[in-house]
Amino acid sequence: MNQSPIETALNRAMIRWSLTKSTPIAETPRSWIFRVEQNGRNFAVLKILKPRVAVEEGRGAKLMSWYGGDGAATIFDIHGDTIFMEWLDGGTLGDAARNGHDDEASIAICTVVANLHRPRTDAAPDGLLSVRERFDALFTTDIRIWPHTARDLYARASGIAYKLFDKPTAAIPLHGDLHHDNILSSDRGWLAIDPKGLLGDPTYDVANVFLNPFGATELSANPRRINALADIFSARLGFDRKRVLGFAAAHSGLSACWNLADSLPITHELALLPLLLSAYDQA
Questions:
Q1: Alpha carbon distance 256, 138 (integer Å)
Q2: What is the pLDDT of residue 74?
Q3: Which residue of the set 95, 177, 194, 262 is catalytic?
Q4: Structure pTM?
């Protein structure tokens, strides 16, 4: 019987890395994920990328490999579109924040960011996407797809983004999609997964935190929480507070553009963006 492409990729991976058992964990829009075993003792993850996102996800996997397990899950090997990596079975920082431990989660995020941004002796992987390119959707979106009453918010978010890129800072490799539910607990501490593989201003790596954790609009759309995040990122990571808030507002606008392009609601972004803009103006 002919095998499907995913079955073929899985079987080849099982042989290549001498794996003895595989259990499907999830199928996402971007990949198939399996928990695998080696001789019934050691657990790991196989992530088989879907063709349409293989370039983007592969870029992130190469960056994750470059991290060498410092602040991120360890990549054991990459072969084509298949990633063989460390199994993390703990909860996410999203779980912690949604269950009343948002302050502790914010401190943990600072630790993860500091580890990810730590200078490394090896050269960064080739092909990282610039943060400026990441923002193309914000700069090229037709404003008419935005709700009429929110177009001023779009204009302000894009204007702040232009201003940020007009005054660039030193560029470093960035996770690019760091948020509470992309940080998992392990016996080595909190570790990041699923980077996008960007290159740019280190401040951008905390922008998405303001929109998260997922499903907690009441928590994130709180002016006190917004200012508290800006304060902790400034104090613990040495980031310029106004740039932090600027990137948070610009990223909120970018996120809305992505959702509008996919015909998804932007209720969450519209709840956050006026508050982020206000905090930016007051910084």
A1: 9
A2: 95
A3: 177
A4: 0.92
Q: Which residue has the tokens 């401190």?
A: 107
* β-strand pairing of 198-200 with 129-130: parallel
Cβ-contact 66, 124 below 8 angstroms: yes
What pLDDT shows up at residue 193? 94
Q: Which residue has the tokens 């570790």?
A: 191
Block mean pLDDT (10 aa), the chain, length 283:
80 91 89 87 88 84 94 93 90 95 97 96 93 97 95 97 91 96 94 95 98 94 97 98 98 98 96 98 94
- For residue 42, the 8-state DSSP code is E
Pairing status of strand 21-27 against strand 191-192: unpaired
- Whole-angstrom CA distances from 269 to 30, 104, 131, 144, 250 are 23, 24, 20, 17, 11
Residue type, 250: A
Dihedral pair phi/psi, residue 183, rounded to 5°: -130, 120
C-alpha of 279 from chain center: 23
The bridge status of strand 198-200 relative to strand 82-86 is unpaired
Tell which phi-psi region holds residue 146, choosing left (phi > 0), alpha (psi between -120 and 50) or beta: beta
Q: Is 177 among the catalytic positions?
A: yes
8 Å CB contact between 37 and 84 = no
Count of Cβ atoms closer than 10 Å to residue 158 Cβ = 20
Residue among 226, 263, 251, 238 at smallest CA distance from 145: 263
For residues 144 and 163, what is the distance between their CA atoms, to the nearest angstrom?
Answer: 23
160-186 burial, b at 16+ Cβ within 10 Å, e below that, comes to bbeebbeeeeebbbbbbbbbbbbbbbe
